[in-house]
Amino acid sequence: MSNYQFNEEIIFSDEDKKKVRKPLGKLFEGKPPETTERLVRHIQERKPTMLIVVGDFSAKELSKFGIYADVYVVDGKVERKTSDRFTDEAALQIFTENPAGTISTKAVNALKEAIHSGRRVIIYVDGEEDLLTLPTILLAPLGSIVIYGQPNVGVVSVNVTRDKKQEIYAILKSIKAKEQV
Fold first, then answer.
1. Nearest-CA neighbor of 56 among 34, 39, 79, 26?
2. What is this structure's pTM?
3. How far apart are CA 137 and CA 85, in angstroms?
4. CB–CB of 33/41 below 8 Å?
5. I need a surface site. Which of 66, 80, 138, 178 has the fewest CB within 10 A?
6. Rounded Cα distance, 4 and 51, in Å
7. How confident is the model at residue 163, as a pLDDT?
8. pLDDT, tens digit, for every residue of 113-142?
């Protein structure tokens, strides 16, 4: 089911990127702080196994409300523009590389390390973190929530279920199959 083998870099075409732009979970439309308040209530009600936040803006917004993730995946940019680096003094820091439009094996290994560390972790990505949402969903424990921003629309909360993992697995498998043609 979610045993996708990340033994090769996955390169996304423009068409592939369009496919994964639609929200993968519950979309909280609007702007902060209103969307953040609704998202915080959502997280508190669900009591996730693990909370993982992909994106600098979402990480900063949730921390303003006292919500701290188990894993953060950030690249120092908000909507492709350099921003102040998200920090958390209590977190272990892992540095990795992930070129734009790809899912690199280095970044996936960093995700695995972070998820299994038993500590709060910030993964600093040199490159782009957006597409790392996909392997994050596959690697997260069942019952987790993965949060990421939907540019100019709001924020998305993905409940990690077997069905969601199967959906992401199918997406990645189809992209990889096209690469090999």
1. 79
2. 0.94
3. 24
4. no
5. 66
6. 21
7. 97
8. 999 999 999 999 999 999 999 999 999 999
